[in-house]
Amino acid sequence: MVFRQRKGKSKLTLQCPPELLAQLKAHREMQDAEREKVGDRWRDHDLVFATKLGTPIERTEDWKLWKTILKQAGVRDVRVHDARHTAATLLIEQGVNIRVVQQVLGHTRVTTTERYTHVSTPLMRDAGERLASALWGNS
C-alpha cells in the first residue's frame, strides 16, 4: 500500500451525509472491537479501512473485494475510480454548481471537474424540453 499526500497543498473538508456518517461510526465501532480483540498485535496507521490487524489493505485484496461488491450488487464491472465520475455526474444532475462539485472532488481546476462529469439522459431530455419551450412555448 502506498501512502501519499493529496496532490494539492490544501486540506480537503467534505460534508458527510448523516446516513454515511452513521455507517462510518458503526464501522469504527467494529474496528475498535477488532483492535481490542487482537491487543498488542494491532498496528495503528489511523486508517478508516484496514485489515483485522490495523495494517493497510493490499491493493489486490481491495480490488477483489470491489469486484465481489459489484457482482453482489448486480451492476456492471467498473473501476473504483469510475465512482468519482458517477458522483460528479449525479451531483450535476441534482443541480449542484460545478464549483461545488470541484470542491467535493478536490480538484484544483474546474476543467478537471468538467472532464469528470458526463451528460446523462435526464439532462439531455431536460435540455430538449427547455429548447422546445423556448421555440414553441411548450411546457
Automatic annotation (TrEMBL):
Coiled coil: none annotated. SUPFAM superfamilies: DNA breaking-rejoining enzymes. It holds the Pfam family Phage_integrase. One of its GO terms (biological process) is DNA recombination. PROSITE patterns: TYR_RECOMBINASE. Residues 1-129 form the Tyr recombinase domain. Keywords: DNA recombination. GO terms for molecular function: DNA binding. InterPro entries: DNA_brk_join_enz, Integrase-like_cat_sf, Integrase_catalytic, Tyrosine_recombinase_XerCD. This is Site-specific recombinase XerD. It comes from Nonomuraea thailandensis.
